[in-house]
């Protein structure tokens, strides 16, 4: 996320407290523990006194009615671990795999298809699935969608031991509903960990991070999740999958404060259709207009020397719909079918609602004079670094980043080619505003 409050991957090592803070924390913990013992002593004495006057203690429960028990049992063979490796070769040892990351996954369809986060398998060349019984089996990458941070693997053996999850619905759940997270925090050493919480918020579209290039209406919940939970399942009290755990809030860039109980999951309504496309096509079919773009900061309305807040076209692909429609470099897209857009994320989210072959109307602002100026050390280039991370589990110093910092220069299935630069576009000489109709084509 590119806000002062940031979502971060728990894969990063926690900051070390200085000696003074550690000593103070230990003192506070000791005081709290000591106070707790005094309180426990009072409770024990009071109960003893009550028993003396003939009052019976509360009856011992005969069963545990926690829904987490049922959910864990129902999905015992539906949540797995993901082990990401890179392949290497040496004359003495031949081909060898080096583990670089671990995460979690959910069995999404018969045949051993497993849904996980893209950032868990990113940059890996060989994959294994940690089965519920502890076996490690090889898996192949079926398809990936860096645009929404999702990927599908296929287990190559023991598929009869895996049970697809039951697909639920997050949209119908009220805030406060019980949720259970299942995954592998810390990797295989803590496999099949079950935690419980509640839904803290729905449709958290303001949550923004560089793991996706589209807006996501995240489920916010407080079930404890940690490094390695990425790609694991979030379930309702009936054991139905309602989300894929992906992000955890770690605090503000401007604050050293630590935050707990702020996890975020991609809703199943978003994740499941993408998984189906990855299984069927090996990719997500999205439309494109055939341009490279960058975010343009500016006023709401165009001014003579200031381009409006919009999406600036930095390049037009040959033989693309954009070229056929007459779009040019340094045109500024301000709306799609009359709906205002001010960022590439808003543009791609809107265009994803259409299909290849559909025609859309783009509102364009074009200046008579426009060009790119590259500053040396601008405020924007300093503060536009992403501080939002997820929580796949890194090994051997490998620190994978969410997305590719542009996530489309190499065409990673996100439907658009993006061009990010610290350069500033300068404009002048007057401008015109007009509408252009563009027929979308399928991203190859």
Q: Could you explain the architecture of this structure?
A:
- With 444 residues, the chain is α+β, with helices and mostly antiparallel strands.
- Among the domains are: 71-161, Trypsin-like serine proteases (Thrombin, subunit H, Beta Barrel), CATH 2.40.10.10; 287-384 and 422-442, Pdz3 Domain, CATH 2.30.42.10.
- The chain is 17% helix and 35% strand.
- The chain is built from 7 helices and 22 strands.
- It has helices at 19-52, 67-74, 118-121, 268-281, 321-324, 344-351, 379-383, and strands spanning 5-8, 79-90, 94-109, 113-116, 126-130, 136-145, 150-155, 178-183, 193-204, 218-221, 233-236, 241-252, 263-267, 287-288, 291-296, 310-316, 332-336, 339-340, 359-373, 393-394, 424-439, 441-442.
- The strands form 4 sheets. A 6-stranded antiparallel barrel has the order 8-9-10-13-12-11.
- The chain starts with a strand and ends with a strand.
